[in-house]
Amino acid sequence: MSGPEAAVDGPLIRRRYVAGLLLRLCVNTAGGVGILAAILYFSLSRPLPGDYAGVFHALRNLSPFLRPILAVSVLVYALLACGSTAALCVYILHRVAGPLYRMELVLDQYRSGGPTRTVSFRNGDQIQPLAQAFNQWIGALRRDRQRWLAAMMDAERLCLQDDATCRAEMEGAVRKILEDMARYH
Amino acid sequence: MRNPSLQPPRPRIRYVSPRFQGPAVLAFAGIIVIGGAIFWQLVDRAFRWIFLHAAIRGHYTFDSAYEVARDLLSWHLASLFFGVFLAGSVLVLLLVAATRRGIGKAVDSLRASANGDLSTPTGSGPIGEFDRFGGKIDAARSETLASVRKIRSDAAALATGGMPLEEFRLRWDELKQQIRTIAP
What is the pLDDT of residues A39-58, one digit of tens each? Predict the structure, then answer.
């Protein structure tokens, strides 16, 4: 039981979704690095003193002076990039997390014995074959249930005749149901 | 006819799953922090000698320190961008692969269930959230199988015959009621 069967009704994750995620990640990273570049540009672009000694001393002492600026700019970059990437993850990945959450609710409802509706996800949600597979399973169960009940009803209809015929028909219906149920394991 | 303005607003469901999105956010944050730390170390080390070197060489054609460090900064910023983006892309592809694998197994398990296989385990995915989800599917399947087995044993008892007609009728009705509970 693996991927190829799952691909029958369409991909679990669409390529367009992955491409969109990568594109947004690229823009996000570029934005973070751009902000870092801007901070460093404004820190380093102050004009150097005009005379020889001034420039010499300014360049010699620049490295220790730039250390905290560099640390703060990297920290700002990390915070901004982490924040925007976290927002991106929540915004993009809820197209997978949402359907999973919904399916969990449906499974809980099914297990509690409540009426189970056909599952359909929102537009743009990923993992659509999951809903189709669940509906397929519930549909198969319902068809079997209807067939078994119909067989029992048919047998009951013959109970208007004599008891022996009624009993024979009922036992026949039960045997038919048993044969039908044999596929469940 | 209902007045739509009197109906309470439908709550917007955001569907945020910390168990699924949380680790992804932490992994991306880890990549960004590691990238930033490497950038900081490399640029700090480079700044120590680049300005000293420029001072000693004495070619003061630069208007600002930025002109001294421009090439070095451009190179390191480009490396930071490509490093973080490529590592993030690999993480995205790993996440997609893990999702395809985990959910693919769940889909196959449900399709097998439609064909009557309610006992083969769904199998665990590499992400805990999918493992937990697979467990929920397995629980639903095993409960269905238990119901089917109960109905089957009751039906087998009815089919063997030998019981009085009154008891047969009673158990027949019970069987019908049990069948009605499947996938209501």
Answer: 999 988 888 777 777 777 77
- Residues 28-87 of chain A with CB under 8 A from chain B are 29-30, 32-33, 36-37, 40-41, 44-48, 52, 55-56, 58-60, 62-63, 66-67, 70-71, 74-75, 77-78, 81-82, 85-86
Whether this prediction's pTM lies above 0.90 is answered by: no
List beta partners, residue A47: B64
Q: Give the mean pLDDT of chain A.
A: 86
